[in-house]
Design goal:
Blueprint (H helix, E strand, L loop, with lengths): L4 E3 L9 H20 L13 H4 L2 H17 L2 E5 L6 H10 L12 E5 L5 H11 L4 E7 L5 H18 L1 H5 L2 E5 L5 H9 L2 E4 L13 H9 L4 H17 L7 H14 L4 E6 L5 H15 L7 E6 L7 H7 L4 E10 L24 H18 L4 E8 L2 H22 L9 H11 L6 H11 L2
Parallel strand pairs: 2-3, 2-4, 4-5, 5-6, 7-8, 7-9, 9-10
Antiparallel strand pairs: 1-10
Helix pairs in contact: 1-11, 1-15, 3-9, 4-9, 4-12, 10-15, 11-15, 12-15, 16-17
Bound molecules: 5-phosphoarabinonic acid (PA5).
């Protein structure tokens, strides 16, 4: 029995059980295509058995390199974007304490190449100047502009600081097995390097070295993470029936709501540590499903903070969305509300209650208010925020996303739309080979 639960009672005012039964056949067919590798994008299904097949030798190497990085560095800079960035950050931020980044006894994990902001990268280089640091550069294609530029900046500074040879001992490359500029550079310069399997796409790569090396550098338990994913994979494979298979049920419910005009899904959580899990989820679903003029738009909110901003819209605005709440059943630590004899703030009715209890009541009350405001609600309940359950959650979302994409009728494993902005950017940057587009775009922009 999986320990993660999908509750959908608060979606039932909008979808009835009979309708769900009708769609059961459809999702079961999608499941068959996925496991039999007969559906769209079947060259990119390496993630399905990934947790089961991870080589213990690989884990050992990752742990060894992570220990070396921690030993030699005040800071580890993770360079990557999209699927080569978000999974690692999501897990690190979910499982590290909120103030760990201020603890000088730890190796601090920072990020670069996830955007092109000049001031950010300047400030990062300034900050790193008098620190000892290592760089983990991640790019499957090895040619993505944002991380390639950040890596060039960091490599130059590292080489000036330590000399070429010593700098090479501080660079760890994670890339494709054989192609791409990063692979060539890694071979030539002798960087320690890891391979991203051919059949695992960027947004499905968190359980490969792409996610595992940075997560291990942050001192987190990668074995527990994999073990949670492995158990979830086995459970979802074994349990064919919709009733017992939360990933199939989530995929089906979100598609049913979509077909009823709910074209936006808002993922909400009451745990700020999950902020980057939401970002990872947004990428996974947005990049997998948004194509051919179709797809649920994935949005994210962080409650209760956003109840004081977006809460108004969710309650009373246009109703073209549904909400999925990720709740953590049990906080790791207790903070109880103290008594106060004066009770000027009127909070004595809560004395002795934990903040977790108050948060849970805020969540349940909000859910009912939103349902009353015509918002279907789903809830994914995770028992506790630890590496094992996060591994379960990651695999659950991956499987549900693949099934959901198949139900939608798209290939969830490609991203043809991402290329469009790149062509324009290259043309405007006057990259050789783009001359015609450069002239046309400049004319449109009157520059
Ligand atoms: O999910 C994806 O495939 C993308 O988000 C990629 O991860 C992203 O574009 C980065 O690509 P690369 O790893 O080739 O630098």
């Amino acid at each position: 029995m999986t320990k993660l639960h999908l509750h959908y009672q608060q979606a039932l005012p909008f979808i009835n059980q009979e309708e769900i039964a009708i769609f059961e056949k459809e999702i079961s067919l999608c499941r068959k295509h996925l496991y039999n590798r007969t559906g769209k994008g079947s060259d990119f299904l390496g993630w399905i058995d990934l947790p089961e097949n991870i080589d213990p030798g690989l884990i050992q190497n990752i742990r060894k390199d992570a220990a070396r990085i921690r030993e030699q560095s005040d800071v580890a800079v993770v360079v990557g974007i999209g699927g080569s960035y978000l999974g690692a950050r999501a897990v690190i931020e979910a499982l590290s304490g909120p103030f760990d980044q201020y603890d000088d006894s730890r190796t601090r994990v920072l990020y670069a190449g996830h955007h092109l902001d000049e001031d950010y990268h300047h400030a990062l280089l300034q900050y790193l100047k008098d620190k000892s640091y290592s760089v983990i550069v991640i790019s499957k294609s090895g040619t993505t502009t944002e991380p390639a530029i950040a890596f060039r900046l960091l490599r130059k500074q590292l080489e000036e600081k330590y000399g070429k040879e010593k700098a090479s001992e501080r660079i760890f490359a994670i890339t494709d097995a054989s192609k791409g500029a990063l692979k060539q550079l890694a071979n030539e310069q002798g960087y320690a390097s890891y391979v991203i399997p051919d059949d695992v796409g960027g947004r499905y790569s968190v359980l490969t070295p792409v996610g595992l090396l940075p997560i291990a550098v942050a001192g987190l338990d990668i074995e527990a993470l994999i073990s949670g994913a492995r158990d979830m994979a086995a459970y979802l494979r074994k349990n064919e029936k919709l009733h017992d298979n939360p990933a199939a049920r989530y995929a089906l419910l979100r598609n049913m709501l979509y077909r009823k005009g709910r074209t936006i899904e808002i993922l909400a959580s009451y745990t700020p540590a999950l902020q980057y899990m939401t970002e990872w989820w947004k990428q996974l679903y947005g990049e997998s499903e948004g194509k051919e003029g179709k797809g649920i738009f994935p949005a994210g909110v962080h409650f209760t903070t956003d109840l004081h901003s977006m809460g108004q819209y969710i309650q009373d605005g246009i109703k073209n969305f549904f909400e999925t709440i990720v709740t953590i059943s049990k906080p790791a630590y207790a903070a109880r509300i103290p008594a106060d004899p004066a009770d000027l703030d009127g909070l004595n009715y809560l004395q002795g209650k934990s903040l977790g209890h108050v948060n849970a009541m805020a969540s349940k009350g909000t859910m009912l208010a939103h349902v009353d405001g015509d918002v279907p609600n789903l809830e994914i309940e995770v028992p506790a925020l630890n590496a094992y359950h996060l591994g379960e959650l990651i695999y659950f979302f991956e499987m549900a996303c693949a099934l959901s994409g198949y139900m939608l009728g798209v290939n969830p494993f490609d991203q043809p739309g991402v290329e469009k902005y790149k062509r324009n950017m290259f043309a405007l940057l006057e990259k050789p080979g783009f001359e015609e587009e450069t002239a046309a775009l400049k004319k449109r922009l009157s520059i």
